[in-house]
Each structure stands twice: as structure tokens, then as C-alpha cells.
Amino acid sequence: MASEVAEHKYQLNVKMTCGGCSGAVTRVLTKAQQEGSVSSFDVDLGTQLVNVTGPIEEAVLVEKIRRTGKEIISVTSLDDSSVAEAAAV
After folding, report:
1. Cβ(11)–Cβ(76) under 8 Å?
2. What is the pLDDT of residues 60-70, one digit of tens each?
3. By C-alpha distance, which of 5, 74, 61, 71 is closest to 29?
4. Strands (E) located in the chain
């Protein structure tokens, strides 16, 4: 019997100043996607926004991106219609 895993949607504002920065975030999210914790993602260097969908928990996602050395300005949960925004530490 398979259990349903909740899909979460997040938008992160990540300080990225060059292709190397966005590449680092892309690499970490690609690995998470291969592991099954991320279903899809989009990294936009121009807007410095990273959109992520998947069963990954917010704290785990933040830690993965933080390990790239990039500063996370904010994290917004886009689950359902409720939008909760919290500044990352």
C-alpha cells in the first residue's frame, strides 16, 4: 500500500551574481531531483528566484542551498493558497 507524499512548492530569493552562482544552486537541486526529494525546479539568475516543487521539507531545502555558500534572502511557501513568508537566517 503506497502512501501519498505531499508535494510542496517554494520560492526562494537567493543572492546569485553570476552563472557560477546559479550553476551551484542548479547542481544541488539536480542531485535532490535524482534522489527524489525535488520534482521540478527553476533557477532564474536575472530575478534571483528559485522555484522548487517536491516532497522536500523547507528546512532540508534551505540547508541544501545554504551549503552552496549562497545567501538566502527569503523563502516563500506557495503550498495551497496560503502564502507564508519567512526570512532565512
Report:
1. yes
2. 999 999 999 99
3. 61
4. 8-14, 40-44, 49-54, 72-77, 84-87
CB–CB of 9/41 below 8 Å? no
Grid coordinates 530569493 are at which residue? 13
Q: What is the 3-state secondary structure (H, E, C) of 47-62?
A: CCEEEEEECCCHHHHH
Nearest in space to 35 (alpha carbons), one of 54, 11, 8, 12:
54
How far is 25 from 67, CA to CA, in rounded Å? Answer: 9
Q: Which amino acid is at 52?
A: V
Q: Which of 37, 8, 33, 24 is nearest to 65 (CA)?
A: 24
Using N-to-C axis directions, what is the helix angle for 19-35 and 58-66, rounded to 10°?
Answer: 140
pTM: predicted TM-score of the whole model, two decimal places: 0.84
Grid cell 526570512 is found at 87
Contact 64, 32 (CB under 8 A): yes
